[in-house]
Automatic annotation (TrEMBL):
This is 9767_t:CDS:1. The chain crosses the membrane at residues 423-440, 452-469, 538-561, 635-654, 675-696, 778-797, 826-848, 860-882. Pfam families: CTP_transf_like, MBOAT. GO terms for biological process: glycerophospholipid biosynthetic process; lipid modification. One of its GO terms (molecular function) is 1-acylglycerol-3-phosphate O-acyltransferase activity. It comes from the Eukaryota. Coiled coil: none annotated. Its main location: membrane. Residues 81-97 have a biased composition (Low complexity). Belongs to the cytidylyltransferase family. InterPro entries: CCT, Cyt_trans-like, LPLAT_7/PORCN-like, MBOAT_fam, Rossmann-like_a/b/a_fold. It comes from Ambispora gerdemannii. Keywords: Acyltransferase, Lipid biosynthesis, Lipid metabolism, Membrane, Nucleotidyltransferase, Phospholipid biosynthesis, Phospholipid metabolism, Transferase, Transmembrane, Transmembrane helix. Residues 1-10 have a biased composition (Basic residues).
Length: 920
């Protein structure tokens, strides 16, 4: 970096309007593309002989004098020597000659400024001797920008005159005082300059600002620098006096390259350079790396190696995928051919199944699996073939994506127009469901109309029951009415989409609504905190009720949510600001809150304020100020996380299907392989749930429904309607945590409206409560046997888990075994994951015979483990563990007492403990 980069810029300085003699115009430089390079060692020797006065001062040291006579020439001198016979000599009239080398293929620096571009005078060059030009700077990390500046100074007078270039470099002490620490020390910076072919002499310990004394001492004819004025403390331009004397030569700066830029690149790629040096044997201590930083660098290196490996193997993988797509295309073509041949058979079978049979028989008759398969448009076939995702899944994905622009539109509706919001929600929920049907198929449109009609009738009946039926029978009637409609609607589905999906969400909304209305009629002292928060005191209008039931963001696949959450969302109650909340927001987001308040705060609210939103102690609440935070980035994160699972599904789900467990190949595998396979297959089966729940939650967040207040730091929380916590589920070390992280809103519904409702008031939940909850969950999913196998088995597993956790976990909370708590947690995670993956096999296969077949091939291992554990507890294992824990606890307390009474005598302590009576 040159000295100019260290000084402060000042205004342009103008001295004389007299035009300087032409030095080197842009046009001339372009025409003289053939530049010359001089053998400077010969020039300096000739000059020192011809001159009567020595121009070298004590601190000047010509580069030629640094070499011994036996030292080999530099590459430039060797090239000049080789080409000297074919090049001509040029004399400047002083007796000194220069050897000209053709450098037309060399890169050239930019030309000097044209005389018309500056207004000061430049003296004509001296005659009879070389011209002495001076440049100075720091020259840290010497780069081509430095070299180009020196080249311009060297070639300032073209090829006709010889230039002797002196370059000053500031020492370390002066540089640290004026600028700061450099990468290279003074000696290294000076040596870098000595190896530059444009430099004739290096002046170390150069001053920060040149003065007249310095110019006279070194017989300097010109000072070369860029033409931007630089200010010092005592003058407006440090080169003003040089310009007045006609000794200033302007140079061009090389844009885009500087020492600071090089250092920035090094800092930016710091980890890469550290890894490279570590690989070359440099120790972490030499690089000044702490332990944590070293581990971080090693981790990043591992990730980089994995990326490189994936990139290298992608070509082969791409070929394999192309072959797989080709095979899939052929399989689809054959499938469609068979489908066409048997179309008449399908029509006859349809007529037989939907003939004059009783509704009850249709409900309880074993129906085919709810897999979403069937014919779709050619465009969907093509996309499905490319991505490997079933066509019906693509249609669901596209429909869910359409809710994002709807959410943005909903957010822009007038905040106080609640009826408009209800109408928007109802209308577009129906349109969202319409997107799941084939509009070109008359039968499909008929089923769509029937489905919408059924949803509206069910919702209106339940609303009427809650309005006209009082007491505990209202929620019970609604529960059976909604669940019965779900069972009937399970038969009403097209080839591509099962209408029971939206109907399952509808059941949750209708039953929670009915129970919340019932809770609003009860004394508040009889309610739990959750029930007090969600109770409905004022019945909604029919339009508000339908807006809640058919909210477009969660209508298709969820998430389900409480009516009071919807009311607070529509009336802006969830966005109300208290003084404490406003202070937290302003403290955390001070720079952003002013503009956000102007754009997102709504003033006086004339809309409905619910009884759950009152706070008489807060003055700001009375002002009815509402701040609507921006949920765009949280919504995008959910969307991207959903697409991550789509990608993983495309890569893995096709290779690990649960259907392969029914094949003969699977039957021939070893037990360990079969058990391992169902673990991976069950894991892949969860991908589709992750995708739809995450994307649907993102749309709710974008609309604003997902907002759930602020944390202690003033950051907005967006977990009000979270339906899946993927990380918590996959890392759960017990059944309770795992179930709480899966289908979370359904679990909230089962817990608060089934599990706790069937438990007598004032008593703890029993096994009957657990069994009733899992049974309701199975009934909610459908009547296929696989559901009941999974949920009934899950009830026994959860009960066994409670017994294990109650009797074994306390051991690892004691000071003695607490260091092994991590091993206990890891064991719990492993047992939980393999058990749940084993249990959901019937949930995926649905068939009783197929489910029992796969469990049999795996020796009913989870069931056997549950039975053995329960037998052990029935034989008294729980009491034995309890006595052991009490014994250990009492011995510790007794040891402390005895040690205190015996003053620490080991023999007395042992005798006293042996004689002590420990109660059971």
């Amino acid at each position: 970096m040159s000295l100019s980069s260290k000084r402060k810029r000042a205004g342009n300085t103008t001295n004389s309007s007299k035009q300087a003699p032409p030095i080197h115009t842009d046009k001339e430089f372009t025409q003289n593309a053939t530049t010359t390079s001089v053998n400077y060692e010969d020039d300096i020797n000739d000059f020192s002989i011809a001159s009567s006065n020595s121009f070298h001062t004590d601190d000047e040291l010509p580069i030629s004098s640094k070499r011994s006579k036996n030292e080999p020439n530099t590459p430039e001198e060797e090239e000049a020597s080789i080409n000297s016979s074919s090049n001509s000599s040029v004399s400047d009239g002083s007796g000194a000659s220069a050897t000209i080398i053709d450098t037309k293929n060399f890169p050239h620096s930019p030309p000097l400024l044209s005389p018309s571009q500056y207004t000061y005078t430049v003296n004509p060059p001296p005659v009879g001797r070389p011209i002495r030009i001076y440049c100075d700077g720091i020259f840290d990390l010497f780069h081509f920008g430095h070299a180009r500046m020196l080249e311009q100074a060297k070639k300032a007078f073209g090829d006709e005159r010889e230039v002797y270039l002196l370059v000053g470099v500031c020492d370390d002490q002066l540089t640290r005082e004026k600028k700061g620490k450099t990468v290279m020390n003074g000696y290294e910076r000076a040596e870098s300059l000595r190896h530059c072919k444009w430099v004739d002499c290096v002046i170390e310990h150069a001053p920060w600002v040149v003065d007249q004394e310095f110019l006279s001492k070194h017989r300097i004819d010109y000072v070369a620098h860029d033409d931007i004025p630089y200010a010092s403390i005592d003058t407006s331009d440090v080169y003003a006096f040089v310009k007045e004397q006609g000794k200033f030569l302007p140079t061009h700066r090389t844009e885009g390259v500087s020492t600071s830029d090089l250092i920035t690149r090094i800092v930016r790629d710091y980890d890469q350079y550290v890894r490279r040096n570590l690989e070359r044997g440099v120790t972490a201590k030499e690089l000044n790396l702490g332990f944590l930083k070293e581990q971080e660098v090693n981790l990043k290196k591992s990730i980089s190696d994995i990326k490189t490996s994936i990139h290298q193997n992608w070509h082969g993988t791409k070929t394999e995928l192309r072959n797989d797509f080709s095979e899939l295309k052929n399989d689809l073509r054959q499938t469609f051919a068979v489908w066409e041949e048997k179309s008449q058979e399908y029509v006859r079978e349809f007529s037989r199944k939907f003939g004059a049979e009783s509704v009850v028989d249709k409900i309880f008759r074993r129906r085919s699996r709810r897999s979403m398969v069937g014919g779709v448009a050619n465009g969907e076939d093509s996309t499905s073939t490319i991505t490997g995702v079933p066509p019906d899944h693509l249609r669901v994905l596209a429909t869910l994506m359409s809710t994002y622009p709807l959410a943005l539109t909903f957010r822009s509706l007038p905040p106080r127009n609640q009826n408009l919001k209800h109408l928007f929600s109802l209308t577009f929920a129906i349109l969202v469901m319409f997107g799941m049907f084939d509009v070109a198929n008359t039968t499909s449109l008929s089923r769509f109309a029937t489905g919408v009609y059924g949803f509206l009738v069910c919702a209106l009946l339940c609303y009427a029951v809650t309005v006209y039926v009082k007491g505990k029978w209202a929620p019970r009637i609604v529960f059976f009415l909604a669940m019965g409609h779900l069972s009937v609607s399970a038969r009403l589905s097209n080839d591509k989409f099962d209408l029971t999906g939206p109907q399952m969400i509808l059941v949750i909304k209708l039953t929670t609504f009915a129970f919340s209305v019932y809770d609003g009629q009860k004394p508040i002292k009889e309610l739990t905190p959750y029930q007090r928060n969600k109770r409905i005191v004022v019945l909604p209008s029919l339009l508000e009720f339908l807006g809640y039931v058919f909210f477009f963001g969660g209508f298709l696949v969820g998430p389900a949510f409480e009516f009071m959450d919807y009311r607070q969302f529509i009336t802006m109650g969830m966005y109300k600001l208290s003084s404490k909340t406003l202070k937290r927001i302003q403290l955390q987001h001070h720079d952003e809150i002013d503009q956000s308040l102007q754009n997102n705060i709504i003033g006086q609210n004339n809309g409905q304020i619910t009884d759950n939103q009152k706070d008489d102690d807060d003055d700001d609440e009375k002002k009815n100020l509402y701040y609507i935070p921006d949920g765009f980035y949280p919504a995008v994160r959910k969307l991207l996380f959903g697409f991550f699972w789509i990608t993983l599904s495309m890569l893995m789900a096709k290779e690990f299907t649960i259907e392969w467990t029914l094949s003969e190949e699977y039957k021939k595998k070893s037990f360990l392989y079969k058990f391992y396979y169902i673990q991976i297959a069950a894991f892949c089966a969860r991908f589709k749930y992750y995708v739809v729940w995450l994307i649907a939650e993102g749309a709710c967040i974008l609309s604003g429904l997902g907002f759930n207040g602020y944390d202690d730091k003033g950051n907005a929380k967006w977990n009000r309607v979270t339906n899946i916590d993927v990380i918590a589920y996959e890392t759960a070390d017990n059944i309770k945590t795992l179930l709480e992280a899966w289908n979370m809103n359904t679990n909230i519904w089962l817990k608060n409206y089934v599990y706790l409702r069937v438990t007598p008031s004032g008593k703890k939940p029993t096994f009957f409560s657990t069994f009733a909850t899992f049974g309701t969950s199975a009934l909610w999913h459908g009547f296929l046997p696989g559901y009941y196998l999974t949920f009934v088995s899950g009830a026994f597993v959860q009960s066994t888990h409670r017994a294990i956790r109650r009797n074994i976990r306390p051991f690892f909370l004691t000071p003695t075994l607490s260091p092994y708590k991590r091993i206990y947690d890891l064991t719990g995670w492993f047992a939980t994951q393999i058990t749940i993956n084993y249990l959901i096999v019937p949930f995926l296969l649905l068939s009783l015979r197929q489910s029992l077949h796969v469990w049999k091939l795996n020796y009913f291992i989870a069931h056997v483990g549950v039975i053995l554990i329960n037998v052990l507890f029935a034989m008294g294992a729980g009491k034995m563990l309890m006595r052991t824990r009490v014994l250990l606890s009492n011995k510790k307390d007794l040891l402390k007492q005895v040690e205190k009474s015996t003053n620490g005598d080991a023999k007395d302590i042992g005798e006293n403990i042996e004689n002590a009576v420990v109660p059971e």
